[in-house]
Amino acid sequence: MNNPITLPGLIDVHVHLRDPGQTHKEDFLTGTSAALAGGYTAVFDMPNNAEAVVSEKVLEAKLASARKQIVSDLGVYFGSLGENLDEFDRVRERVRGLKLYLNVTTGGYKIDTDYLMRIFTAWKCDKPVLLHAEADVIKTALEVTAKTGQKTHVCHVSCREELEPILEAKKSGLPVTCGVCPHHLFLNEGDVERLGNFGRMKPELKPVKDVDYLWSELDKVDVIESDHAPHTVEEKQSGTFGVPGLETTLGLMLWAERDGRLGREKLIDLLSEGPRRVLGLEKQDATVEVEPVEFKFSNEGLKTKCGWTPFEGMPGYGRVKRVVMRGETVYEDGEVLAKPGSGQLL
Ligand code: NCD
Ligand code: ZN
Ligand code: ZN
After folding, report:
1. Where are the domains of the chain?
2. How far is CA 94 from CA 64, 82, 132, in A?
3. Which of 61, 150, 292, 324 has its CA 20 to 30 A from that of 268?
């Protein structure tokens, strides 16, 4: 029997907990319960709610809902469609960054790259602008980072065409970071045949050569982000983009570690230290104990309300046994022990 694995609380810079507005898919309680079950003690929620989080009023309603329910710590991002720049000064202290969508994805909040200069200039602060920026717009986006000097995080980088210019920009000293998702590392376009609509997300699954490239450059990537994007089985069957990921990411990454694809230090960097650096967070008082066992991912017993995973049947390593935050056991043996509302807003 191998020794138990102890890790710092994991941090996910990219989740969609759908609350308020689409709580039939997920809510702050089920979403943060899934976080604890996956070894995450802090998650950061995107603004593409049913009503976009682009005003102080909508932001306050979201934070009020979170305050009552969260069992892990949680922070949120503000959004912009280009018309709310006067709101930035009022909300900056209550959010962890500004998220912009430059491609079509869930929510329909795509903006034109022509807006970027104005938005970046108005946001101008230490907190990052986070971008959904796929291959067609990545160069334009990085030019705006260069011109403004604004810290920028590129979400869910999925292929060489996206990662290569980011690595060049990093090399030249631009304040840019990036994240890769487990589905772009452990699945490829060949899996779409098997998964059907359950393998559909933005950015799409890519050819094996891109997956290999992501693995080969993983040491230069800042974070693994799950892009936990729950949708019901019925919604998936009708073609919605996005897959859940909070309860599968650690098991996949520990499997890769066992496989010799990365070391423990890099694993911790991608799942905890890197996210802290990207968002400028203080060290959390949180640890995760993991049982060193092999298992197969299953749709059964998940805490996420959507109740399925695209990784079903695939091998994982390490079961989260216990999560301790600020001296309290908040999760043990499949059960959330923390009271709704006991998590902190970050
Ligand atoms: C996300 C969602 O469902 O909100 N979907 C996705 O395919 N990744 C939105 C996003 O992250 O682009
Ligand atoms: Zn996105
Ligand atoms: Zn997302």
Report:
1. 5-336
2. 12, 20, 22
3. 150
